[in-house]
Amino acid sequence: MTLTCPHITLTTCYVTVVVRSRMSTLDDSLEEAAMDLGARPWQVFWLITLPLIAPALLAGWLLAFTLSLDDLVIASFTSGPGASTLPMLIYSKVKLGVTPEINALATLIVSVVALGVVAAGLLMHRREQAGSR
Known about the structure:
- The mean pLDDT is 86.
- By secondary structure, the protein is mainly alpha-helical.
- The chain is flat, with a radius of gyration of 21 Å.
- It is built from 6 helices and no strands.
């Protein structure tokens, strides 16, 4: 809890900005039309609003995860005894010298990010191909 609350507090503002910018561009007439056709407010949220803001929620989550993973200062000041995060572990090991474990961990992190970027690029390419047909 001592690590979770500060990271949530730090990243909430970033997620709020991303989601709010998406919400400001939504067309209210879609929600109004769904309500006119008999949908309940929770149905409008789950079937109309949530799918429209899902990309912003994903972007906010990715931004929050990246900022939280990168934030060594908050983690070091708020962690209790015996609690250690991955950035704290990497920093403590790098102070003594770079070991093959750190190199392997960095390779894994870069590989996962690269796979994510390639997957997103392929998905965007497929959507573009389907849209042009």
